[in-house]
Design goal:
The protein is mainly alpha-helical and 179 residues long. It has seven helices and no strands. The chain is flat and about 80 Å long.
Length: 179
């Protein structure tokens, strides 16, 4: 993951960026241009222009950090309740198949907490809290390993085809025999 807590900036990085914006505000008050401020602070001119616009509208307080862009909507206590629900298994929630999918977890969150998550949001929530994708612990009872091995050796190479051309190729874009 890009950030240590799974998303957003660390507190130190938020503080650093806020200090940059406040330095820019001091320079706006002195009448300096956006290009000079951007060059000296080593940020984009567009960012400085956005900061200047906010500073003009609401003053220096508008450049203060707003905190995390997105806070988890489930509290730690609610996530513990969700884990307890997941531990009961899908059958307890009405699914015959014994697998948890992101869509099913989303449904449980909606039923239990009356919150709407996207599938991607559920994935991020689960990863952020230490869950990962799982593969089945055992193979299907109906699987015939000998048949699979034979298929891989005999059928798959024919289906895939040869990767090399049968005849040597030419680097010419036209055929040699063309008129």
């Amino acid at each position: 993951m890009r950030y240590p807590q799974g998303g957003g900036l660390t507190a130190e990085r938020q503080q650093f960026r806020e200090e940059l914006r406040l330095q820019a505000a001091e320079r706006f008050a002195l009448g300096e241009g956006s290009t000079a401020v951007a060059r000296d602070l080593r940020v984009s001119v567009r960012s400085v222009q956005r900061w200047r616009h906010a500073w003009t509208e609401d003053g220096p307080r508008s450049l203060r950090s707003q905190g995390s862009a997105s806070l988890p909507r489930l509290s730690d206590q609610q996530f513990a309740q969700l884990e307890a629900e997941l531990a009961k298994g899908p059958a307890a929630h009405g699914w015959e198949d014994p697998r948890w999918t992101l869509a099913r977890v989303r449904t449980v969150i909606g039923r239990r907490f009356h919150l709407t998550y996207t599938i991607q949001g559920v994935r991020k929530l689960m990863v952020r809290n230490g869950w990962s994708c799982q593969v089945p612990a055992r193979r299907a009872m109906e699987r015939d390993d000998d048949a699979v091995a034979g298929w891989v050796k005999e059928v798959w190479p024919r289906a895939e085809g040869s990767r090399r051309p049968v005849e040597p190729g030419s680097s010419s874009k036209t055929k040699l025999a063309s008129p």
